[in-house]
Amino acid sequence: MKPLSRKATCNTHGQDSSYFLGWQKYENNPFDEVRNPNGIIQMGLAENQLSFDILESWLDMNPDAAGFKRDGNSIFRELALFQDYHGLPACKKALVEFMAEIRGNKVTFDPSRLVLTAGSTSANETLMFCLAEAGEAFLLPTPYYPGFDRDLKWRTGVEIVPIHCTSSNGFRITASALEEAYQGARKRNLRVKGVLVTNPSNPLGTTLSLSELNLLLDFITAKDIHLISDEIYSGTVFSSPGFVSVMEVLNGYENTEVWNRVHIVYSLSKDLGLPGFRIGAIYSNDEMVVAAATKMSSFGLVSSQTQYLLSALLSDKNFTKKYLFENQERLKQRHKMLVMGLQKARISCLKSNAGLFCWVDMRPLLHSNTFESEMELWKKIVYDVRLNISPGSSCHCTEPGWFRVCFANMSEATLNLAMQRLKKFVVDSTTNNSNNRSLDHYYSAKNSKKKSLIPKWSLIPKWVFRLSSRDRDRESSDER
Questions:
Q1: What is the mean pLDDT of each run of 10 residues along the chain (480 residues)?
Q2: How far does CA 68 lie from the centroid of its chain?
Q3: Catalytically active residues, by annotation
Q4: In CA terms, which of 188, 212, 310, 443 is 20 to 30 Å from 159?
Q5: Are residues 256 and 133 in the same domain?
Q6: What GO biological process terms does the UniProt entry carry, in alphabetical order (predicted)?
Q7: Do residues 262 and 217 lie in contact, with contact meaning Cβ atoms separated by under 8 Å?
Q8: Quick one: DSSP state of residue 208?
Q9: How far apart are CA 116 and CA 45, in angstroms?
Q10: Which residue in 217, 231, 136, 137 sits closest to 173, CA to CA?
Q11: Do 208 and 143 lie in a common domain?
């Protein structure tokens, strides 16, 4: 008899992705401007540390909330005792009003349709349990957040089928890509239960267009499936075009079945920079989904203390208005710093308007148009340049040479140092390596708009298949 379960011994968590491996390398040699100035700079972590001073100022001016008091009297004992897993009504009310404010109050949210979860990780997994059986599938546009391989699949057994988006149109979702993914799933005998998108996109840093949202709603209507819109970066949109929530488009579907098949995931981890507080949410018009998700939330509750503090914070409309404006301005300036730093290194990136990162085009630094070359470049950047960035293959991008680079989790001085390191690396690489394509040659070829003849399926990184097929085969073998 085996001492552990298959879940404990299988390798479907996705921990062997270069996304997580880069974190491990950073943790072994973390940069510190005083104690370890030659260490690895963490640019693979999408944290928002730009506006902590605004939050800290509010805490200083509101000692009752921070000290768990109401009208000067301690409510510590009240908060310390057991709370119903439906969540504190004041917290849910404040959260839905904050979500509406981010969306320009063009839509409203009903607190009774909101389920509190311990972050968006818990929210996405809970929705998978509610909407799909093990072995059924969700379609995700590529490139997508590497953690989804863990969040959506590991415990639920749900499969991910990629919707292949390409740089030819800025990685936008198309009708043909949706249909190709759907038919590809059917050929694998996978029942498709829905589509999951991030809006704004992680890792692209772009917002979905109105035409893409309409396309998605038309698609799920035709296929009779669900749509999950993960909108945890909705408050980080710092330039045009503005953010359009799927809820705005859904308002025209109130009397249709689609009304109950669209679900939103939200969290305060990115907009407020509070991932350690573990407060996320599911919003759905489907009463059965809300009821089931509420029951499941008992396995990942948000503490009463956290709910009380955040209900007071988010109920302060003067604060939320000031914070959203100032935080977006700071993100805009920091994004500009990164883009200018990349330009000085003669590196371009996808034009973006949201998020805590840029989708950076390092294809001119590849020796060949392969993922092996991408991994070789990534290792050089981690070990030699000492920057932890996330390679596109970890995000399931079908084109080698794209990287996600984060900019909001460090000081300006650290970001400038990172750009200096990268510029030196690019100069040295293009000067000393005769086998490497020159930047001039690359951009000349790029401007000619010649399409690559390499089939996209040949560009999919091997570890993508290893995470799904290898361990599924192992589990099937164990069952036999």
A1: 76 70 86 96 96 96 92 88 86 97 96 96 97 98 95 95 97 98 97 98 98 98 98 97 95 89 97 94 97 94 94 97 98 98 96 98 96 96 96 96 97 97 92 55 50 38 40 35
A2: 32
A3: 145, 230, 232, 270
A4: 212
A5: yes
A6: ethylene biosynthetic process; fruit ripening
A7: yes
A8: P
A9: 24
A10: 217
A11: yes
